[in-house]
Design goal:
Number of domains: 2
Distance between the termini: 55 Å
Strand content: 5-15%
Number of strands: 8
Shape: globular
CATH architecture of the largest domain: 3-Layer(aba) Sandwich
Helix content: 40-55%
Order of helices and strands: HHHHHHHHHHHEHEHHEHEHEEEHE
Structural class: alpha/beta
CATH superfamily of the largest domain: Uncharacterised protein PF01937, DUF89, domain 3
Largest sheet: 6 strands, mixed
Number of helices: 17
Length: 411
């Protein structure tokens, strides 16, 4: 019996498993380890049935989105198009063998399932839908005989490209590089993201090389850019950095980018802070996993971090997730303990921004969500979904902006 003979049944089983998890969280939504109050925790900023650019659109979606064909079909087509263009076509471009016929069959079965069960899916947050889709795509990748980590080559290429630059910065510039200059590089490196189209990644890599050289030459514009930027809460982050020894939970995002994170983290270690690095548990796109970080730290270029690791001033954990947007109600015990211990949490990337919403978005108003630990979100705005989420706080923000946001702004 082939994969496609049992695919409809398998999709249904996975849907029921995910819906059971969703219902359990909906019945007991509070997360006492991170929330200050017994308030509902949304898995991301938007639910499918309250999404829309205007309150009237959100109201129509909520009231009739499950039965109005244009709304329902638009969502479903968008999901199918995204799965194809962002998940499978990049794998095909990398040389992984997926036939057009098999991919078409898979997407048709998924589309039919979403159509049949849309009344349930539209209650989920985007993070929950993405988690279900990812689980299903992983099973499809197994059938297509793809490796467990299909982005491994790309991840290695990104690390190799920036490992030499990492060494150069440490040896020649780290002592003279200002905190704001290093923060700028950390923010810009977030564009090393395989969720983007390859042409956009290539264009960024070319332009980023120029920016790095400019920053290393101590460009005069850096200080003014960081201090006066409307979307960078620089003074709050600097105040945290200058405090006496604190525990920092630092959640990573992508490969290549990680080398700039490690430069940044080293500065926090030198300042006397304890840093716990959090990674994904299993592979997803070019995100850093626990095993990836463990392997990367074996490089001779990173030997200087060994003393911090031996004294446990620097530690690293897996957060229990292999989703683009981690479901915070499914975190590992190690992660929950690290969050509880932390004085500050630094979160890299769009997925981590979405996973700890600062506002619970309703139809007509948003309610603030209060976390026990101060958060700093460091990211580039690369998708319209995240732009809309950030626009709840910064209404005029555009795609391709940088963001360094303190949740103290909301609290």
């Amino acid at each position: 019996m082939s994969f496609f003979d049992t695919l409809d049944q398998r999709i249904q089983i996975l849907f029921e498993q995910h819906n059971t998890v969703y219902e359990a969280h909906r019945n007991t939504p509070s997360l006492p380890w991170c929330l200050t109050e017994s308030t509902p925790y949304p898995a991301s900023y938007y639910r499918l049935d309250t999404y829309g650019s205007h309150p009237l659109k959100r109201l129509v979606n909520r009231v009739a989105g499950g039965i109005l064909a244009p709304i329902r079909d638009g969502y479903i087509q968008s999901v199918i198009s995204t799965v194809k263009s962002r998940y499978f076509l990049p794998l095909i471009a990398m040389g992984h063998g997926i036939s057009d016929r098999e991919l078409t069959l898979f997407l048709e079965r998924l589309e039919n399932h979403l159509f049949t069960h849309w009344i349930y899916y539209r209650r989920w947050h985007f993070a929950e839908l993405f988690s279900f889709i990812n689980t299903l795509c992983l099973e499809a990748c197994t059938f297509f005989k793809l490796p467990n980590d299909p982005y491994q080559i790309i991840k290695q290429e990104h690390n190799n490209r920036y490992l030499g630059i990492y060494t150069q910065i440490r040896e020649d510039h780290l002592e003279s590089l200002s905190f704001q200059a290093l923060l700028y590089l950390v923010l810009r490196a977030n564009w090393l993201d395989c969720y983007l189209e390859q042409t956009r990644i290539n264009q960024f890599i070319d332009s980023f090389s120029v920016e790095i050289n400019d920053v290393l030459d101590q460009a005069s514009w850096i200080d003014e850019f960081m201090l006066n930027h409307p979307y960078i809460d620089y003074s709050e982050l600097l105040t945290c950095f200058k405090e006496n020894s604190k525990h920092i939970l630092y959640e990573l995002d992508n490969h290549g980018e990680i080398l700039f994170d490690l430069l940044f983290i080293e500065q926090w270690l030198k300042q006397g802070h304890h840093v716990c690095i959090s990674t994904k548990q299993q592979p997803i796109l070019n995100d850093v996993t626990y095993d990836d970080l463990k392997s990367l730290l074996q490089n001779p270029e990173l030997n200087h971090l060994n003393d911090y690791l031996k004294t446990k001033q620097l530690t690293f954990i897996g957060n229990g997730s292999n989703d683009v947007i981690a479901l915070r109600y499914q975190m590992s015990t190690e992660y929950i303990q690290a969050y509880t211990r932390a004085d500050y949490v630094i979160l890299k990337g769009q997925g981590n921004f979405e996973s700890y919403p600062l506002l619970d978005q309703g139809i007509f108003k948003s309610l603030p969500i209060h976390y026990k630990t101060p958060h700093f979100y460091l990211l580039g705005i690369k998708s319209d979904l995240t732009r809309r989420s950030v626009a709840l706080i910064h209404p005029k923000i555009l795609v391709d902006s940088v963001l360094a946001l303190s949740n103290q702004r909301i609290n």
